[in-house]
Each structure stands twice: as C-alpha cells, then as structure tokens.
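Exercise 7.
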Amino acid sequence: MLLAAAGASAAIKATVDADERVDSPVPHRYIHGVIPDDAKFQLALPDQWNGKLVVFSRGFSGSELTPGAWKTTTLEKGYAFAASDEGWSRLTIAKEPQDSYYESRQRIRELTLYAQQVLIAHYKKKASRTLMMGGSNGGHHTKWMVESYPELYDGGIAGYGFNSQVSQWGGVATVLRHYDVIAPRIDDIIAKRAADPSWDPARAPLVPSLTAGQLAALEGIYDVPASIPNGATFNVGRWPGSEAQWKSNHDAWVGYLRDSMPRFDPTFNPNGGALTDEELRLWDPTRSPKAVQKELRRLDLTGNLKRPVIVMHGTADAIVSPGESDGYRALVERRLGKRNADRVLAVYFIPGMGHGGPEYSNLIGAQLDALEQWIDYRESRGKRGAPAPERLGGYPRGLSRLRPPPARPA
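Solution. The predicted structure, written as tokens, is:
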C-alpha cells in the first residue's frame, strides 16, 4: 500500500506493510514500511498528540526497530515518533555496493519530510516542532542533520556520538593496537584505577612494574590525537576510569572493524588475502589514499549550529570516546565563538557511565524537557522558557577537560 499526504505536489511516497493500532506504551497508530527504494521505517502516532515530532537516528548496529527508551519516552510525552534503518545495515554494508554510511543523510531527511506529510494527513495539522535525536551513531547523525538542515529541525538531543569517521574508527584501531600490548596486565590496571581514581601510571608504578612498552601503550590509549581539517583538534583517547570498559568492549571494537573495514577503506589489505583480526588493528585512516579519506570525511561535522543541541556523554565510554563530545564543543566554539556556541550547544558528562545504558535512558525525558524550554527561550527572545540548565540530571554543564592528561615520564 502506498501512503502519502493528499495534495502534496512533491510528496514522498512509501510502501506500507503494516498500519495498525497499538496500545503500548500509549495508544497509538503504528505504521511500518519502506521509503523507496530501500529505507525501512516506522512511525508512531499517539492518540494524545502534543503537536510535535521526534525523528530518531539509530545506533551503528541498530535498525528502525531498535529505538528502545527513545521511543517509549517520547510517546509517553505525546510526541509523534519516526525512525529509519537509513538504507544500510552494519552486517551487510560491506557486500552491498549501493549502500553507504553517507546514505543516512538523505534517508533521514526523507523520513522527516514523509513523517511531516503523514502527520498532516492523520491529525489535519502540521507539526509545530520537529526534534532530532539519537545516541552513538545516532548522536553523530543528530548533530550532522541539525547542522545541515536548520530549516527542518528545531533542535536535537545528541547522545554520546562521534565527530568524524576518521576519529571514531581510526581511534578504535589505535586503541586496539595499544590494548594488545597491555592486555596481560589489564586486570592489574583495572584494580589499581578502582583503588585510586587519580592514579598516574608514570608516577605510581604497578607491582611488578609495567614495561616501558606497556607504559607507552597505556599512554597511547589515553592519548589519541584527532582533528577535523580546518576545524578543531581534540583527543579521542579513553578517559581514566574507563579501563574496565576496555576489557569488556574489546571484542566489540574488533567486531566493528571486521564488519566494516571493506567500506571504511577497500584499499586496506597489508598482506593480501582475507583480512585477519590482527591486521585490522594496523589501519590508520590518515595514511589511506586521498580518495578514501575524502569519502570518510564526508561525514565530518562542521560545528555550524543554528539550532540548540544537548549532548550527554559518559566519562567511561570505551566505544565512543567522551573526547568526541569535548571536541565537538571545541569545534562549535571555533566556528561560532564561545559566546555564540553557548547559545546553541550544551554538553554534560556523566561520571562513570559507559556507552549509554539505563542511566542515560532515564535522562531522555529530562533532556527533552530542557530542550523544549531552551527552544521556547530562544524563539521568544527570553520571554518564555529557559536557557540550557547549568545542571541536567544533577550533572553540570560545560565542565571541561574532566579527563586529566596523563603525566609523561620525566
């Protein structure tokens, strides 16, 4: 069944395979289908609609069917909800030449326009506000889309996302190389950090001591320089206090590279034949051919925000370094100046939190409320609403450089 808004001259049409009533988490109309030619989507239209739309971008391993607490929270607050698989899957993209990570830009925009059409047809009025949100890969996409389409989105919630494929996936390969060196001592490192959160590996040696190579490798995990051309420089090393997450996420790091390396860099094959897990760690995108770097850089953020965005990121995140969020703040400040950056970007770090999880999910509602107040404040020139709060969920805004730089040996 084709579904599009009546009378729309350039309507985006979809093939719908489900259109039904659902009672949980609140009574709503559920629509599922495909926006040609291959982007699967879902829409949820609550009976008690607040007049607004949330567009969700999925995680790197997710799909249109994995929004979790994002969908539940927004529906309970009365928002219409839209999500897409964005036309690609992590598990198949290496073998599908028609798919690309950049495709998400087109597919999210199409989903937004389509959802706005359906809202008019269903509720007989336009959405008064459209918000973009997501975590991880979706956090990156939220910043990307709000930067790119300020006319479509009134603001965004960008959870624990990266700034660039080069910093994110190159950082994962770099961390893996160093992790191999310190792996025999990782339990000792975890125990030491737990006993002394301010532990400085260079000045308080383990017993027995780390070798010079192991100490350098540990430093190499904490300190991973990154940059966006003509933009900010930042550090995507993993922060002290996240060491236990290194061990538990090791296999996930390998899995990301294993699944996607043929799309990240099809030229990377150091020894010929099938890529081994050991070879994946050797990849350095800054040394890839210019054509590969150009493709990777298509997803770079610019920092050119015109609509407000809230970022929350765990300090113990081992999948996407919290340095990415600190770096995004630096990028926006570089682009707009600090004063103007503070008017459109609010960053909050959650001590000890890893890559999302229940603690983050429990704060989605608070972020939504804060974003709505912030948009009202900006649109009314301070007569309604409130600027981004100084504390969100108990966590302070703008606390910079939570991660102390590891001391180098004298």
